[in-house]
Amino acid sequence: xxxxxxxxxxxxxxxxxxxxxxxxxxxxxxxxxxxxxxxxxxxxxxxxxxxxxxxxxxxxxxxxxxxxxxxxxxxxxxxxxxxxxxxxxxxxxxxxxxxxxxxxxxxxxxxxxxxxxxxxxxxxxxxxxxxxxxxxxxxxxxxxxxxxxxxxxxxxxxxxxxxxxxxxxxxxxxxxxxxxxxxxxxxxxxxxxxxxxxxxxxxxxxxxxxxxxxxxxxxxxxxxxxxxxxxxxxxxxxxxxxxxxxxxxxxxxxxxxxxxxxxxxxxxxxxxxxxxxxxxxxxxxxxxxxxxxxxxxxxxxxxxxxxxxxxxxxxxxxxxxxxxxxxxxxxxxxxxxxxxxxxxxxxxxxxxxxxxxxxxxxxxxxxxxxxxxxxxxxxxxxxxxxxxxxxxxxxxxxxxxxxxxxxxxxxxxxxxxxxxxxxxxxxxxxxxxxxxxxxx
Length: 440
Fold this sequence. Notes:
Helix content is 40%, strand content 11%. By secondary structure, it is of the alpha+beta class.
């Protein structure tokens, strides 16, 4: 027969004999022995011993020492508070509003004997204090829950549908609305409903146009404190959120989350009509509007142009105003789209962020990489229904079809010249009308 393993108490090093009771120091969450032991003996290393245990005597000693320490902390807090009160009352510059106190002289504090004294007897209610922070409670279970949640990183409340965990019933209840579809918070102006009060408060500003959060450097104002905080980084130049894989920095946590999907290839937003998956909620909305609806709600007030995206309409309006808000800080280049400025800056920095995963090709634009990838696939998905012509891009097929139809949609506004492509028209104007010689 094999020998029985000997159980040794990690605290007193004595053998635990027979049926003597013992307790695990690492995972006895009810008694919180490990936390209490480290509380007054922080240098002890329990990891040296696998599954360290404490005998019944040591368990009682840990409990008593911890309770004694909490009593000392409680007494010290009470004494200090009383000391502060007395010091404040001794200061003859302080006016005491209470009717049961009367300051008679500069040196002595006297209490009006005809009125009951304001110092009450200390409460007999027992308070449990957390040694790591200012938390206290008259219920021991509340202190245990506080220790488990705040100082151990545990999230004891779990969703029974997904992997979500949290620390409070309120957070769990709010999360469950995502599964039930419940939207109890309703706008009293329109039909908007949501599942949390913060979203409703944010929505209400749409009706009032109120923007209470204002920048003290420029004219920027916002309906959300979070947006103002992000805006302030433009003035300070700070970018607190950093990617732990590459050198990317940004001003908002949401931007970092989106960026990380480039490394993980995660596409959490799925279309419920087709197989499309997107990296952001905006990409999914944009996909649904472009592919599954014909609606174009954003219309130009000057011409007949209409589009599915507000951002596209804003860019279109620059054609009427002539404004080019995006400017290069190195040369005189200006443009109407932020992406164009980003591409332009690659000329100055020499950066080529778009890399082929098959060969050594690097490009400055995603479009250039897409064009290059067809060299590896030899795929030509766009085919002419009249002849055998095949091409890589839809715009190339559109241009080719004009050879069959004879269409020349690009017209010179100076002479009667017409052509099939915009490039030919620009070339014509440069050679015939402007005599410009840009290549030096």
